[in-house]
Amino acid sequence: MTTHFAPAPVEFDQPADSRFWPGFSVGVCAATVVAGVIATGALLADRIPTTSVFEMNGTLTVISGSADSTVSAFECVGDHGFDDIAPGTTISVSDGAGAVLGVGPLTRSVREGNFCTFFFAVPDVRRGASDYAVRITHRGSVSFDETDAKSGVHLTLGN
Asked: What pTM was estimated for this model as a whole?
C-alpha cells in the first residue's frame, strides 16, 4: 500500500521590488495632481487682479495760458485765467456717486511751444467703479471708464 502525503506547502519569498510598483503608482498620481494644481493656478493668476487699487496717471495740457516757472520740475505754470494750475494743485478722482477714490498732485510740467503740459499721478484709486470722474481744482470733472482710467487720461484746457 502506498501512502500519499499532501505536498508540503511551499513558501515563496516575496521579491524585494514587489512593493515598488504600488508606491511608484501613488507617486506618479500625486505628482500629476500637484502639476495640475500648479498649472491651474498659473492660468488663473493672470485673470485675477493682484490688487484692488491702481495708479491713475495722466496729463493736463493748457493751451495759450501759461508762463515760465521757477519751480524745479515745472518748466511752466498756468497763467491768464489758469493761475490755479501750478505746483501744489491736486487732482481728485471720484466715482459716479461722488465718493472720492483718490487724490494726487501735479508732478511736473513741460513747455511745448504755446502749450504747457502737466503730468499727474493719483495713487491707490479703487478698482471696480462704474466711472471715474477726474476733477482739477474748481473746473468741473471729466469721466472715464476703468479701462481708460487705467491706461492714462489726457485733459485739455484753453483754446
From this structure: 0.67
Tens-of-pLDDT digits for all 159 residues of the chain?
566 666 666 666 655 556 666 767 777 777 787 666 677 666 666 666 556 999 999 999 999 889 999 999 999 999 989 999 999 999 999 998 999 999 999 999 999 988 999 999 999 999 999 899 999 988 889 999 999 999 999 999 987
Report the alpha-carbon distance of residue 107 to residue 121 in Å, rounded: 7
Q: Does domain 53-158 have CATH number 1.10.1060?
A: no
List the chain domain ranges: 17-45, 53-158
CA triplet 146, 139, 125: central angle to 5 degrees? 30
**What CA–CA distance (Å, rounded) separates 148 from 125?**
13
